Amino acid sequence: MKRNAVIAFVLAFAGGCLASAVYGFLQGAWPFGLIELFWTGDFVDAREAERLGLVNKVLPDAELMPFVRGVAAKIAAAPALSVRFIKRAVQQGMRSDLRSNLDLISSHYAVVTAGADHREAVEAFIAKRKPVFE
Question: Which domains does the chain have, with CATH numbers?
Answer without folding.
Answer: 6-59 (no CATH), 78-127 (1.10.12)
